[in-house]
Amino acid sequence: MGCFFASKRLQRWSLMAGVATLALCASASALADFNRLGQLQNKGFAISAEARLLDAGANALLGSITPDRQLSPASVTKAYLAAAALNRFGPQHRFTSQLVSAGSIEGGVLRGDLVFEGGGDPGLTTENLWRLVQRLYLSGVREVDGALVVSQWRFGSVDCITTDRCNALTRVTNAYSAPLSSAGVNFGSWCVNVAPAITAGEPAQVGLCDSQTSLITIDNQVVTRPANSGTEISAERITDERGDVMRLTGQISTNATARDVYRGAGDAAETTAQVLTGMLNQAGIQVREPWRISSSQPPSSAQRLAAVDSQPLQELLLRIMNYSNNYMADVLALDLVEIPQAQLRQAGQAIENYAQSLPGHGPLTLYSGSGLTTENRTSAQGVNVMLEDMFRQSSLFPSFVAAFQSPANGVMRFIRRGPSTFQNNVMIKTGTLNQPFAVRAAAGYFRTAQGRWGVFSVMVNGNSSTPYLSWSEVLDPLSLDLEAMILAN
Q1: Which end of the chain has the smaller Cβ count within 10 Å, N or C?
Q2: Mean pLDDT by 10 residues, the chain (489 residues)
């Protein structure tokens, strides 16, 4: 029965062909383990791997390599986060951000401070803030006799803990190291649009993606080159006495399309204050005093003036998992902490508490919900316990599995490799780290040739002595190993 579909397609062949098919099935069954992936151990890499069926009881195990070994899962951590959040909040939960004030409105003037109370929305964007400002305008407010106060009291000031995020406080060349805040917007990042000038030799045209107001300094050193000259743009956000500065260098061709460049901000709450101030000005709402940041909860006397809800949790998880968005993941993890002034280790412990409530899970250590640190530790067996538990929850599983990617159709192009059986029968979440050592991890679900469900988890960790590990070195053997398991069952 292991190769039922393959045999049925070949029924019209001769008897000899049928015998050959049975031989191939037996061969596939014999190779249905992690023998190919396991060869990475010969290069010094540590592996924890396990694959098993979800309907076979004691005979469920298909293959394993030290399945209880504790290794770094990198961004496979986000699968734990998604499971914990769905169990805690439910798929339709929304996070609310609001404008509140303890002052009264008299003749269009708000007598007091206008407070933006961040609701821990991992996906808060400028579109949400525009709606918030428009709703404030419709409430009749035209002037604020006070300051705009951005309140991030839910988390307070979040310690950076990882090298990437700590270095990013002063300068950064990526968006994934953005600082965290319960009041952050646009994933804690600045977006600058770069377009060619009409004439070659002129500076490129640059500006913020979401604002006509010059909220930060843009040091534009990008030169326009003749058509078809190629486009190469480097960007770095630095923070100095001017505040955040986006430094752009490189070139763009006259016939190139405009490019959006994202870099993490120096302070997520300050970025929100700058963006909101610009929007209030554009809406014709004057704020008399300079903005400020607060980690204090608004007074109980504060009244809601306008509010905006996030997307449902199940939609937030699509972006968190598909794009492996570290900012969104860690903000959502901080939302799991029930007390104010949350820190990342507490967020990790909240996810640990969820996982350790699952029978048979075993040890788990999480210092973040994103997996951006190699200090996170779990086992392939533990990951599979969590995956199976979510599979058994019929009300949560559709939202959970939808956040994984099909290699054939996923947004991450590097997983589009291996045989078609792997690409079309697997739903996968990957994890990647390169420093201080290489981590390549993958976990998810598969459907066998007979339509049975299975789970798999693989973690490959290097050390200071192992060579660079490319994804092809992991996915190529893994895809063949999983294909053999899928066809044999």
Answers
A1: N
A2: 38 37 41 87 97 87 97 98 98 98 97 98 97 97 98 95 90 95 97 97 96 92 97 97 96 97 97 96 97 96 97 98 97 97 96 97 96 96 98 98 96 94 98 96 97 98 96 98 96
Alpha-carbon dihedral 233, 239, 245, 250, rounded to 10 degrees: -20
Taking residue 213's Cβ as centre, other Cβ atoms within 10 Å add up to 15
Neighbours of 271 (CB within 10 A): 27
Residues in contact with 408: Cβ distance below 8 Å, sequence separation at least 6, in sequence order: 416, 420, 423, 424
Q: What is the pLDDT of residue 251?
A: 98
- DSSP letters, 54-79, are SS-GGG-EEEEESTT--B--GGGHHH
Residue with tokens 């530790």: 377
Beta strands per DSSP E along 295-361 = 303-309
Quick one: which of 188, 186, 251 has its CA closest to 220?
Answer: 251
Paired sense of beta strands 217-225 and 243-253, if any: parallel
Planar angle of CA 142, 145, 147, nearest 5 degrees: 105
Three-state DSSP at 86 gives helix
Buried residues in 83-112 as b, exposed as e (16+ CB within 10 A): bbbbbebebebebebbbbbebebeeebbeb
pLDDT reported for residue 12: 35
Residue type, 151: S
Q: Could you count the other beta carbons within 10 Å of the beta carbon of residue 162?
A: 20
H or E stretch at 379: none
- CA 365 to chain CA centroid, Å, is 19
